[in-house]
Specification:
- The chain is built from eleven helices and five strands.
- It is an alpha/beta fold.
- It has a single domain (about 35-240), classed as 3-Layer(aba) Sandwich (Beta-carbonic Anhydrase, Chain A), CATH 3.40.1050.
- Strands 2-1-3-4-5 form a five-stranded mixed sheet, sandwiched between helices.
- The longest helix has 24 residues, at about 1-25.
């Protein structure tokens, strides 16, 4: 009996250490391991934010190592367990997965010109968090945003007109002595870009009862971010909504 108990204890400890090793190495520079359901469940909103911060630091410092993309494809073929969801602009210079240095299966990404949210995107974020288990939502704007510039200039171009209208609240909300209030004024454009992120975060809370409740309960976090297209750096606007559950 004593031998069996000791053997069982050794097996249990080995299993625990293996799980711990897997979790700790999932996001190391040379990792080719996709997130599991257990690893995802162990991630808090605050931890998810730190993982994205560290990923961007690796991206900016170019400390990137070769990864086996096909291995990740195979590992995620039967299921996905992303730890975060990012709402970003359509801009080709961003590539959210790359700038926060995550692998296949790690994050959901919703892209639209101007990184705003509508019911379709909010529903997608509800799926990402409530049903699939992601722990953090990031609304990411970026410098030199063409969509914001178009909104500042009140551009009228086909269906894009309606798309840019989603950024108008940010244009109107920016106060101060900005002259001119057009795309020719870089400081005004950046002020609108930052305001757009903040208003999008507020709309997400107000429009989605599901997401609002999850944020209030600490089940998920919500942060804003700004990507600098000239440096590759992401600045995160941390909120109390990243508290631990």
């Amino acid at each position: 009996m004593k031998f069996n108990a000791t053997k069982s204890l050794i097996v249990a400890m080995a299993s625990f250490l293996m799980c711990l090793w897997t979790f700790n190495t999932v996001h190391s520079d040379d990792a080719n391991v996709a997130l599991t359901k257990e690893a995802q469940a162990a991630i808090t909103p605050a931890k998810a934010l730190e993982m994205l911060k560290q990923g961007n630091k690796r991206f900016v410092s170019s400390k990137l190592k070769k990864r086996d993309i096909l291995a990740q494809v195979k590992q995620t073929s039967k299921g996905q367990f992303p730890f975060a969801a990012i709402v970003s602009c359509l801009d080709s210079r961003i590539a959210p997965e790359r700038v926060v240095y995550q692998v296949i299966g790690d994050i959901f990404v919703a892209t639209v010109a101007g990184n705003f949210v509508n019911d379709d995107i909010l529903g997608s974020l509800e799926f990402a968090t409530k049903l699939v288990g992601s722990k953090l939502i990031v609304v990411m704007g970026h410098t030199d945003c063409g969509a914001v510039q178009g909104a500042c200039d009140k551009a009228q171009i086909g269906l894009l007109t309606a798309t840019l209208a989603n950024i108008n609240p940010a244009v109107n909300a920016v106060r101060g002595e900005y002259t001119p209030r057009t795309s020719k004024n870089d400081k005004f454009v950046q002020a609108v870009t930052e305001m757009n992120v903040k208003l999008t975060m507020q709309k997400l809370r107000d429009r989605s009862v599901v997401l609002g409740e999850m944020i209030d309960k600490g089940e998920i976090g919500l942060v804003g971010a700004m990507y600098d297209v000239s440096t590759g750096m992401v600045t995160f606007y941390e909120e109390a909504t990243t508290r631990q559950p």
